[in-house]
Amino acid sequence: MDREIFLDGVLVNDETDCYVIAEIGNNHQGDVEIAKQMVKAAKDCGADAVKFQKRDNRSFLTKEAFNSPYENENSYGKTYGEHREFLELGLEELAEIQAYCKELGISMFSTAFDLNSVDVLEELDIPFYKIASGDLRNTVLQKRIAETGKPILISTGGGDLQDVVRAYETITAINDQVAVLQCTAAYPILDYSEMNLSVVSTYRKEFPNAVIGLSDHENGTTMSLAAYILGARIVEKHFTLNHAWKGTDHSFSLTPRGLSLAVKSLRRAKLALGDGVKVATPSEKSPIFKMSKSIVAARDLPACHVLEWDDFAFKCPGNGLPPYEIDNLIGKTLLENVPEDQLVTFELVEND
After folding, report:
1. pTM of the prediction?
2. If 215 and its partner were Cys, which of 155, 158, 266, 281 is the partner (CB 3.0–4.6 Å)?
3. Which of 125, 54, 41 is nearest to 84 (CA)?
4. How far apart are CA 273 and CA 229, in angstroms?
């Protein structure tokens, strides 16, 4: 089996461009129009997909957690449940956004945080799913999503390799369309050593049939690029239109300028990696001609002179014999006079 996955009809494998996801999450602030503005901006930045989040908050949270006080600068309600309900988009709202995504030509998918949300997302017939790091050990939800037959991206923050293997085996027993994303579930990343991007290489060895990616919570673009070099072919970045907006994600999310830079850098990286075969390129021809040295006469040299080391100089441009040919000229006899700075060539010496 090849290491590949089709995401809404787009092939992703080791040879393709990096698949870039703009994680809108709840940064839309519960407003469909803001969500659509974000979708348009993500499309303009070159993202392949936008991701939302779906929760049935009453079943997702215990009563105690739902009713717990949540009054702070980022809160949209007096309790955590009220806060979450304010941000939640319903089926009709998500359908409106989905239609807009189709109109623009950008894929839309979602994380399902509970079983009821899978049912809602199935009504929308989203093309693929994300399983959040918080559900890395939730085999019940993993099986339900796997049963949809849709491709699945699974984030692996907060777990160890045993947890990741368990989740992968749980899903692939039902559905082999799985991509495994290295993730550090810190929002944002402050200690870069905790990103542990080398896990990308570990996953590539552990899961040879799976596309590997990065769910990136860095406030920047450099680590996504590093992950791509290591073999990640899916990158997810949190996205906002304004760092100052209310909410915990906005401060570390990429704005359109940052997302555009990330997409551009990842696209260039694919080209820059090349095929590993060292060759001279067309763009190098002119500068190398100007910079390279040729073997020339160090002074005026008479005909019949036997060439010695001191008879040569090495000067630009590189339109003559390169210096590595010097040993093939020493001891040869000149057939004619050679003025200073003239190219010394094999045609000017006697052949053995």
Report:
1. 0.91
2. 155
3. 54
4. 8
